[in-house]
Amino acid sequence: MPQFEPVVLMDRAATPEEHTFYPRDIVNNVASFEESTGIPIANNRLTASVSRTGQGRHKVTLKGTFPIVQNAVADNGVSSPLVVRRGYFDCTFSFEDTSTEDERRNIVGILASALAEDAPVFSDAITKLQAIY
Question: Domain 7-99 sits in which CATH superfamily?
């Protein structure tokens, strides 16, 4: 069983940066992690859950929410943070009881490879919002 501990992930900025997501809580078997910005509404969030589907398959769901915050200035000159937009991802895996660990590992590897910049058909569709033709 995976330990509920901090997770360090890299972004794809021109100069890649580490993002440390700290354990927040586990509610209804959904573990949540946050990258603190010092302003709670601006925190990046990840969640992970493992459950069973109605058909008896194992379901693993990973989600992320990434708010973009700017300071809004009120009429009295006081500024306060305001979420102007968010980016999201939602990734769901589903496996039969008869699947092997190697099969599941290979599927994760294929997804990681599909999201790598060396697979531009998927990377460009996501990052450049370009339709596949």
Answer: MS2 Viral Coat Protein (3.30.380.10)
CB within 8 Å of 19: residues ≥ 6 apart: 8, 9, 10, 11, 35, 44
- How is the chain split into domains, by residue range? 7-99, 100-133
Interhelix angle 120-127/101-115, nearest 10 degrees: 60
0.90 exceeded by pTM: no
**Residue 6 identity:** P
8 Å CB contact between 117 and 125: no
Q: Residue 32: its pLDDT value, please?
A: 97
SS3 125: helix
